[in-house]
Design brief:
Layout (H helix, E strand, L loop, with lengths): L6 H60 L1 E8 L6 E9 L18 H15 L3 E2 L8 E2 L5 E7 L10 E6 L8 E6 L3 E7 L6 E7 L5 H21 L3 H6 L1
Antiparallel strand pairs: 1-2, 1-6, 2-3, 2-4, 5-7, 7-8, 8-9
Length: 239
């Protein structure tokens, strides 16, 4: 015999089950939306990193074939930011090793003129590699270069122009490129003597946009400092 249950209890039991099912469905929908947004953001930043890696690999072959220096040249002040692959002279042409030229806003007029003159003269020696791309490649929405570090410049470069060089021998500078999205910060470390690229992904924990910007800045500086000290991603994960 089926046990007797009051109608009110039967109704409440059914309603509770329905509420649970609706809640689960909504939760799955919301989680799916978050994952889609995150995956889209990750796809964008991975696409940018892959284009940088492809440019470096292409350059290593071209420098040997043409006996010239190539560089990835970044314009961090453009909106959207952009980069291009450029070829310069070979032979005895020497790339200047910049000391820390500082922030444009902190330079005197004379120092800024000196900086602009050096950069202008250097840029005049390089032209875009048309076989790779006939125009600068722009960063997609929601992806931003937070900083670039190279052996030719002191400090994390966060504005103005920056370049990463590949030489006629196929050798390249040591460097780090740090990018950010609303969800995470990613670094790409470029090794000087081997064909190796190392990526490190760090998720953001900030709950609002202003806090996220501060967190991005802090993570970028930490990644740069670890790179300067020679700490690899593998070594850091063991600590």
């Amino acid at each position: 015999m089926r046990p007797f249950l009051p109608k009110t209890l039967q109704s409440n039991k059914g309603l509770t089950l329905l509420e649970v099912l609706v809640a689960l469905a909504l939760g799955a929908l919301l989680l799916g939306s978050v994952n889609v947004a995150f995956n889209t953001s990750r796809d964008k930043i991975d696409g940018v990193l892959e284009s940088y890696e492809r440019a470096v690999r292409y350059s290593q072959h071209e420098t040997i074939l043409k006996g010239a220096k190539l560089r990835l040249h970044f314009n961090l002040d453009k909106d959207p930011q952009e980069f291009s692959l450029e070829i310069g002279p070979g032979g005895d042409f020497v790339i200047p090793i910049f000391e820390d030229l500082g922030d444009n806003n902190k330079l005197s007029m004379a120092e800024q003129e000196k900086r602009d003159k050096i950069i202008k003269k250097l840029n005049s020696q390089f032209n875009k590699v048309m076989e790779f791309s006939d125009k600068p490649q722009e960063l997609p929405d929601d992806v931003k270069i937070l900083g670039i570090g190279t052996t030719l410049r002191e400090g994390l470069i966060q504005d103005g122009e920056a370049s990463y060089y590949i030489y006629a021998s196929g050798e390249k500078d040591a460097g780090i490129i740090i990018l950010g999205t609303p969800n995470e910060v990613v670094s790409l470390t470029l090794e000087p003597f081997v064909d190796k690229f190392v990526r490190e992904y760090r998720a953001l924990e900030a709950e609002d946009e202003e806090m996220a910007i501060d967190e991005q800045e802090n993570i970028a500086k930490e990644m740069y400092e670890n790179w300067l000290k020679g700490d690899s991603v593998e070594e850091l994960t063991k600590k």
